[in-house]
Amino acid sequence: MGENAMLNEWYPVGLFSHTKKGIYKTALMGEPIEVSAAAGGDAVVTTSAGRALPVIVRFGHVWSSLGVPDKDLFSIPEADQPGRRFVEVGVVRVRCSPLRAVENFLDIAHFPFVHTDILGAEPHTEVQNYKAEIRDVEDEVWATQVKFYQPQAAKSASGGITTEYMYRVPAPTCSVLYKTCPPRPSEWDVITLFVQPLAEDLCDVWPWMALFDDETSMTDLIHFQQTIFLQDRSILENQIPRLLPLDPGMEIPTRADMTSVAYRRWLKRHNYTYGAQLVAQ
Predict the structure, then answer these.
(1) Higher-confidence residue: 173 or 158?
(2) Residue ranges of the Vanillate O-demethylase oxygenase-like C-terminal catalytic domain (predicted)?
(3) If residue 235 lies in a helix (H) or strand (E), which one and from where to where?
């Protein structure tokens, strides 16, 4: 269902650092694959039948595709910015649609209720006006002018602040979040969600961060982000339907859901429907 349009996209399939530890067995869109390193150290991805798949190593991860991608993997300029710390958070397996995982990452309204006293708190539950759009030149979904009060916006934050966000969806199963950087207000912290579709209702999520934070230990940075996402996992695994509905009449959106609405429209425009539910059942 909707598989062909997404076959030619790039997907994360493992950490590059792990290729040196031997063969990593995983799956991509239902196809068993193996990730390993060649004699020269380059990453290699093959199907169980031995077919070599295209490979890109970027943002500390190995990316591959079952099809023939007609474009390069998206860029994140901050990944080349001196002074940033790059945090490989690891992987979390989630029993949900890969598209659901991305959509949840775009949801602002759940902060006070799911990430209580960290990314949100009552009575600060109102989602202020913001802008969501499909940018045709970049062919990406963006949300800007997003602001939310947060008791602890980042591990480096020492108290509650009103945090500004920008959301970017450059690929069907990837999202990039830019948010206020407490130590450097003129810069953005970058938090990404790279989602590997194992099946239409199962995915591996690989968070990655590019931060300005010289104080916090790498272990604490990883634990902070894992705590946030594990709070999301219980919500994601209980959503009904498990696949992401693309029919506008299947779920009633609110003002806070503008980014989700734009994301779903963008998915339908490109026939990115692997992991989606097209009609009410």
Answers:
(1) 173
(2) 94-269
(3) helix 218-236
Same domain, 169 and 180: yes
Q: Which residue has the higher pLDDT, 108 or 223?
A: 223
Q: Does one domain contain both 64 and 88?
A: no
Q: Where are the alpha helices (DSSP H) in 2-124?
A: 3-7, 98-106, 111-114
What the block records as the tokens of 112 is 């006070």
Sign of CA dihedral 15, 18, 20, 24: negative
**Among candidate residues 32, 56, 73, the one where a domain is terminated:** 73
- Torsion, CA 154, CA 157, CA 162, CA 165, rounded to 10: -30
Regarding pTM above 0.85, the answer is yes
What token pair was written down for 270? 């490109």
In the numeric block, the tokens 């069907």 are attached to: 172
How confident is the model over 185-214, as a mean pLDDT? 93
Q: Which candidate, 219, 209, 141, 217, places its Cα nearest to that of 178?
A: 209
pLDDT at 237: 84
Tokens coding 114 = 């799911």
Do 163 and 225 share a structural domain? yes
Q: Give helix 258-270 / helix 98-106 axis angle, nearest 10°.
A: 150
Per the CB < 8 A criterion, the answer to whether 93 and 100 are in contact is no
Q: Using CA atoms, how far apart are residues 42 and 40, in angstroms rounded to an integer?
A: 6
Residue that has been written with the tokens 């991509």 in this structure: 28
